[in-house]
């Protein structure tokens, strides 16, 4: 039977972690969701994150991926905004 929803583990760093107040989320998404959609959902919940949207890198299961990569059930997603400092 084809599941209509997938569950992914989202690891948050830097600005994402600060905005959400946690380092990790477990979220459910419709089957066929892209990794960028996770970022979009977080920005909808925390509008202050919008400034990071176009410069965030995405990883799935420890591999950097493109924003349009389709998620699979059980994936571990990482959202990595640029780290400030110098």
TrEMBL record:
Matches recorded under InterPro entries: Beta-grasp_dom_sf, MOCS2A, Mopterin_synth/thiamin_S_b, ThiS/MoaD-like
Molecular functions (GO terms): nucleotide binding
Keyword match Ligase: no
Entry GO CC: molybdopterin adenylyltransferase complex
Highest taxon, organism lineage: Bacteria
GO biological process, one term: Mo-molybdopterin cofactor biosynthetic process
Annotated Pfam families: ThiS
Keyword entries, A-Z: Nucleotide-binding
Protein family membership: Belongs to the MoaD family.
Protein name per UniProt: Molybdopterin synthase sulfur carrier subunit
Protein's organism: Cylindrospermum stagnale PCC 7417
Species classification: Bacteria, Bacillati, Cyanobacteriota, Cyanophyceae, Nostocales
């Amino acid at each position: 039977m084809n599941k209509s929803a997938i569950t992914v583990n989202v690891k948050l760093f830097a600005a994402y972690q600060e905005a959400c107040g946690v380092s990790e989320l477990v979220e459910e998404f419709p089957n066929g969701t892209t990794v960028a959609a996770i970022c979009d959902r977080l920005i909808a919940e925390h509008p202050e994150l919008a400034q990071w949207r176009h410069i965030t890198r995405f990883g799935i299961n420890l591999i950097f991926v493109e924003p349009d990569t389709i998620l699979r059930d059980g994936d571990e997603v990482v959202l990595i905004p640029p780290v400030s400092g110098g």
